[in-house]
Structure formats: structure tokens, C-alpha cells
Design goal:
Elements lengths: L14 E5 L2 E5 L6 E2 L4 E9 L5 E6 L8 E2 L2 E3 L6 H13 L3 E14 L3 E12 L10 E7 L10 H17 L2
Bound molecules: zinc ion.
């Protein structure tokens, strides 16, 4: 993520300034400050009635070709749960119901900078998968026979979801 060099409001060159104890880029003309905040991401850990987990193989960077959970950036004005179900629908055509939050996570991404990821446990309403251009393939996989998920955050979410599900079922 490259920082702004020019003010997006008035076009003047930005100067570094120490504000609230952090170095931020400040416009000397109009006072605009470049606050750099994490981007919010919603991730869906979706299960079918057999307890199989919906995985996708990513058709775009970052993590091109890696197995992952469906998810993506929240839109402005959207509830995190809505964004989670929207991304799930866009990528796989699966409708679902959010059951609970699995966790909230911080990650540093070389492509996007700081990310704030919210992961939800979702129950699939059906299993008619139709993928979009962001995905090479998708399917429901039993936890003990799924493709290897190598993205650390997604692996962590799946592990935490499994542990919570196991303790809930005794
Ligand atoms: Zn300005």
C-alpha cells in the first residue's frame, strides 16, 4: 500500500506531521489528514448438514490458487454479517444463515495493508454451488479430508470453528 503523496481534496503536496503520537501525512493547505485504518473483511466458515466445510480455490491474488474460505471486503453501509453472506453468495451462489461469530482478527497484508477480519460460522441453506470468476473451484469437504488450507488466518478460523463445534456437541 503506497501512502498518498498529494492531498486528494485540494491537490497540494502532503507533509509528514506528528498527530496523536503517530506520524501521519497532513495537507498544509486544507488540513486534510491521511488516517490509515484497517480494511474490514468478512469471512464465511460455512457448513452443510453433514458438517462439511465449504472451501474455494482462489482465482486471484493474493493467495492465487490457494484453498480458502469465501470472503471479502465489506461495502460502506453494510453490516458485517450482510457482507459475509453477500461474498459467500457472489463466490459460490450458496445462501446461508449466520449462526455466530468465530472471531475477530488482525492481519498485515502486503497487498492491502492492515486488515480487520471478522469470521462467522454460517449454515448453508442448500448445496447448489455455482462459482464466479474469483474462484477456480469450490466444494463442501469433510474436516478430516479437505484440501490443505495454507493461508494461516483461514486455517486458524477453521481450527477455532472445529474446536467450538466439538465442544458444543460434547
Ligand atoms: Zn488539501
Amino acid at each position: 500500500m503506497k501512502p498518498f503523496t498529494y492531498c486528494p481534496l485540494c491537490g497540494k503536496g502532503l507533509n509528514p506531521a506528528l498527530l496523536e503520537g503517530r506520524e501521519r501525512m497532513l495537507c498544509p493547505e486544507c488540513g486534510w489528514v491521511h488516517y490509515r485504518n484497517p480494511l474490514p473483511v468478512a469471512i464465511a466458515c460455512t457448513v452443510n448438514p453433514k458438517g462439511e466445510i465449504l472451501l474455494i480455490r482462489r482465482a486471484h491474488e493474493p493467495a492465487l490458487n490457494e484453498w480458502a474460505l469465501p470472503g471479502g471486503f465489506l461495502e460502506s453501509g453494510e453490516l458485517p454479517e450482510e457482507g459475509c453472506l453477500r461474498e459467500l453468495m457472489e463466490e459460490t451462489s450458496i445462501e446461508g444463515r449466520v449462526e455466530r461469530i468465530i472471531g475477530v482478527y488482525h492481519r498485515e497484508s502486503t497487498m492491502y495493508g492492515s486488515l480487520l477480519a471478522v469470521a462467522y460460522a454460517v449454515t448453508a441453506s442448500h448445496e447448489n454451488i455455482r462459482i464466479n470468476h474469483e474462484v477456480f473451484e469450490a466444494g463442501f469437504y469433510p474436516p478430516d479430508a479437505m484440501p490443505e488450507v495454507r493461508i494461516p488466518l483461514h486455517r486458524q478460523i477453521i481450527d477455532e470453528h472445529r474446536r467450538a463445534s466439538e465442544s458444543a456437541s460434547g
